[in-house]
Amino acid sequence: MSRTVDRSPIELGGPRRADGIRNREKVIAAAEQVFVEQGIEAGIPEIAARAGVGKGTVYRNFESKDDLVAAILVLRLGKMEEDLIVALDQPDPGRAMRDVLKAAAVRSSAIGFPPGIVLSGQHAELEAVKNRLKERMKTLFAEAQKAGEVRPDATVDELFVLFGGVCRALAESGDTSPKAWSRHTDLVVDAFRP
Amino acid sequence: MSRTVDRSPIELGGPRRADGIRNREKVIAAAEQVFVEQGIEAGIPEIAARAGVGKGTVYRNFESKDDLVAAILVLRLGKMEEDLIVALDQPDPGRAMRDVLKAAAVRSSAIGFPPGIVLSGQHAELEAVKNRLKERMKTLFAEAQKAGEVRPDATVDELFVLFGGVCRALAESGDTSPKAWSRHTDLVVDAFRP
Amino acid sequence: MSRTVDRSPIELGGPRRADGIRNREKVIAAAEQVFVEQGIEAGIPEIAARAGVGKGTVYRNFESKDDLVAAILVLRLGKMEEDLIVALDQPDPGRAMRDVLKAAAVRSSAIGFPPGIVLSGQHAELEAVKNRLKERMKTLFAEAQKAGEVRPDATVDELFVLFGGVCRALAESGDTSPKAWSRHTDLVVDAFRP
Amino acid sequence: MSRTVDRSPIELGGPRRADGIRNREKVIAAAEQVFVEQGIEAGIPEIAARAGVGKGTVYRNFESKDDLVAAILVLRLGKMEEDLIVALDQPDPGRAMRDVLKAAAVRSSAIGFPPGIVLSGQHAELEAVKNRLKERMKTLFAEAQKAGEVRPDATVDELFVLFGGVCRALAESGDTSPKAWSRHTDLVVDAFRP
DNA sequence: TATGAATGAGAATTCATTCAT
DNA sequence: CATGAATGAATTCTCATTCAT
Predict the structure, then answer these.
(1) How confident is the model at residue D18 (pLDDT cuts 50, 70, 90)?
(2) pLDDT, averaged across chain C
């Protein structure tokens, strides 16, 4: 209570948190790496070691392994959503769609996690982003179709299958060159040419 | 290994072996099902139960779980290789290639296993089929390019990434309708149109 | 199928099971010891080691730790129930009740486990024995009261608290002499004298 | 330990210490609550939260969890000792003994902690109170026997077993009504009637 | 040869305790 | 001094693999 009197305001919450935030980020970064390399079945010990922290720290930041996976997905899908929002205002929907996918691809294995695992638990937030994302992509896709830039017989779901699959395959191949990711995204988009 | 030494000649007959072969096939069939349903992380107990045999029998036929996975892949890739041999004699290489891929896709998650696991162990046989397969597909792909049915800037490796990724994505989506697999293969092939 | 032809009937199921049953009993015996010595918080590894088996064997026989605890309780309460059935036919209900309690006490920490833990999970069987036991003890208690051998202001529940508590206290004291357990049971019963 | 060395004289004053004492008491109060509710296996985080302090504060005041438990016991047994000192001057030793026990019981789970845990570490202070307490109770018990109010064949140790066991059983039953604790103490004391 | 019991390494998760802020 | 983030040992439980029957 009166103990805080002699503390400068700066000490009240800043420095402590800095470490925490850094660790959370380190864990997420490590987890992304490890998951891409070994798949979801990778162990927390491995992730913790890669992040240079103890197992406990992982669990302080993420309630469970599922939670960690969900957090990563939310982050990535969130970025993709932002891109989509911008893309929906662009004049050329076909090009915009391609750009969004490329950005997501380069950001790496985008939606490449086995959805089953993640969906099993009730991750409200994750579900929300997923739905918003799908809705937005649907709109963009429809616009591109209307503009004659995407074949009329295709669906967004098919796009997701192709794109998701390619991301996963690339992630596992170990090829991390943005060029390769970009190139394969081009191929995917070309599959949907009229 | 040396276990066969103490077998009496009488035991070496036909019927005994027939059972053995039947069991091997039952296990492979069960494993394919279970792997598609649950992914590679499915347990041996589940597979054994589904095959109607004991766990021990699985291990009599396959040295390890990796071995079982490899055996399945060898089998599948082997069939694909046979298709390829036939395809290479066909007049229309573009159409032949598409047919080979469709057949493989419909045979289900074809090469949809995480290669990492399989490659970790040195499965000579698997490597061999893979290489032969790649070589043959390369030839067919080149012919199709020469015939103007495949874009000249593409490579077989890219085809493998697209096709492999899509198979995996579909396998995980739980969609087992041949129609869907066929449709997505079409999309993949279209991506390589000139 | 035809493989069993050359096996003698004796080999078909007898010896295998013998081991299994023995192990189950070894685990229960070890668990009783360890739980009495260290309380419920004792670890499965400790129990397995004491039983001379691996952890896995414990889990083959009991779905979970709670299950193991429940099994022990069911066993003990089951014996007590048998005693009670006999006791209810005896001419002197007061003496019969005392004998039942003594037998249970000597069999050691009888109902001395924290009921909370056990009750939390839904162990149908355990609940059933408990209820039957309580019902029977209630009857015997009432008869003893009618016969003027137990004070009319007391209830069975109070008896359970005293008896259960004493068992637990003795178990923890490490005193394993039947004499001590018998003596303390006498004291408990005397508390319910008119 | 040597941490006090660098304290400036100014910091040594009264108010600071008052806070310290208040925290110690808050922790003890919280711990008593939590231990009664959840048993010894309750976690320090829970206790700290209930006390409204950080975990670190708990450890500043008590070297370890065992230490905290011991401190609580010392406190309680200390109160019981005070009661005993008064009781030894009373004219009716039987009644005095009953009153002391009742007071201790109502103060709740008195000596209801698993003694094993506490005794494992060498808590000199706890041992001391225990011994003094036992000695005093022994005297009172002997007087009550001499006065013909307690059966001559019983011992104080037996009284401790009954009383301790009942306290534990009641604590675990979750019954916190002083009436129940009082009633059961009566039963215990009645067990020692001549 | 088939079976499934046994084994034990390893995974997820919790929590007492330490220590930087 | 207080705080809570970090640590890692320990716990429960799973599963690939071995081996007695």
Answers:
(1) low
(2) 83
**D104, D162 contact by CB (below 8 A):** no
CATH of span A11-62: 1.10.10.60
pLDDT tens, C68-114? 988 988 888 899 999 999 999 999 999 999 999 999 888 765 444 44
Question: C1' nearest to CA of D49: which nucleotide?
Answer: F4
pLDDT at D168 exceeding the cut of 60: yes
pLDDT higher than threshold 70 for residue C12:
no
For domain A69-191, is the CATH number 1.10.357?
yes
Task: Give me the CA A17–C1' E21 separation in Å, rounded.
Answer: 10
The size of the C-D interface in CB pairs under 8 A is 80
D74's tokens: 């010392």
The answer, for D120 touching chain C at a CB cutoff of 8 Å, is no
Quick one: pLDDT band at residue D36, thresholds 50, 70, 90? confident
Q: Are B119 and B73 in contact (CB under 8 A)?
A: no
D38 Cβ contacts chain E strand, under 7 Å: no
Span D48-54, mean pLDDT?
Answer: 92
Q: Taking residues D108-124, what's their average pLDDT?
A: 50
Q: Between the CA of B28 and the C1' of F20, what is the distance in angstroms?
A: 27
Instruction: State the burial class of residue B72 (Cβ atoms within 10 Å of its Cβ: 0-12, 13-18, 19+).
Output: buried
- Structure-token match 């103890």, residue found: A54
Q: Which residues of chain A have pLDDT under 50?
A: 1-15, 110-120
Give the least confident one: B148-152, C64-68, C90-94: C64-68
The Å distance, CA of C133 to C1' of E12, is 39
What DSSP designation does B13 have? Answer: S
Distance CA D131, CA A98 (A): 82
What is the location of CATH 1.10.10.60 in chain C?
A: 11-62
Return all residues near C123 (Cβ < 8 A) that are at least 6 apart: C66, C67, C70, C74
| Residues of D whose CB is below 8 A from A2 | 15, 19
Name the D residues in 4-43 with CB < 8 Å from any A CB. Answer: 15, 19
Q: Can you give the length of chain B in residues?
A: 194
What's the angle, vertex CA A73, arms to CA A67 and CA A76, rounded to 5? 145
Tell which strand F nucleotides have any atom below 7 Å from a protein Cβ.
1-21
Contacts of B19 (CB under 8 A, 6+ apart): C1, C2, C3
CATH 1.10.357 in chain A is located at: 69-191
* Identity at D138, one-letter amino acid code: K
> Residues of D with CB below 8 A from A3's CB?
19
- Give how far Cα A134 sits from Cα of A96, A127, A149, A153, Å: 16, 10, 19, 18
Asked if strand E contacts B152 at the CB level, meaning under 7 A, the answer is no
Which tokens in the block code for residue D73?
Answer: 């016991």
B174-to-A126, B43, B169 alpha-carbon distances in Å: 20, 19, 9
Share of chain C above pLDDT 70, in %: 83
Six token digits for residue C176? 């394993």
Nearest to D65 by CA among D121, D3, D9: D121
